[in-house]
């Protein structure tokens, strides 16, 4: 996903993060300078759904304008890679005691 807050704000004539931060505060969303920097720069560490709701209300936009899907960045996991490798008879595991000595044969 790509975060698109800055462009969504610019489309509404908001050019400064501090202005948007003030608008959020007027709607009950207090954001620290560090978190606002992350939101504005396009690389937020995380975002709560309640905060996202306030952001959409302040900007008058939908989530689809703030979050742009990037399916081409999703990689398929190789199915063969996840399969466990069967142990051969010659590589049998011999149990050991905690002191390092082997257990007696059964």
From TrEMBL:
Residues 96-106 have a biased composition (Basic and acidic residues). Residues 79-106 are annotated as: Disordered. Residues 4-72 form the HTH cro/C1-type domain. InterPro entries: Cro/C1-type_HTH. Pfam families: HTH_26 (PF13443). The keyword DNA-binding applies. GO terms for molecular function: DNA binding. Keywords: DNA-binding. It comes from the Bacteria. Transmembrane segments: none annotated. This is DNA-binding protein.
């Amino acid at each position: 996903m790509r975060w698109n807050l800055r462009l969504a704000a610019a489309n509404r004539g908001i050019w400064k993060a501090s202005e948007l931060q003030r608008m959020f505060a007027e709607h009950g969303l207090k954001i620290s300078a560090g978190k606002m920097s992350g939101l504005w720069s396009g690389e937020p560490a995380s975002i709560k759904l309640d905060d996202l709701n306030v952001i959409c209300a302040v900007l008058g936009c939908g989530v689809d304008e703030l979050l742009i899907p990037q399916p081409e960045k999703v990689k398929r996991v190789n199915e063969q890679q996840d399969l466990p490798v069967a142990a051969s008879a010659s590589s049998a595991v011999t149990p050991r005691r905690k002191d390092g000595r082997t257990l007696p044969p059964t």
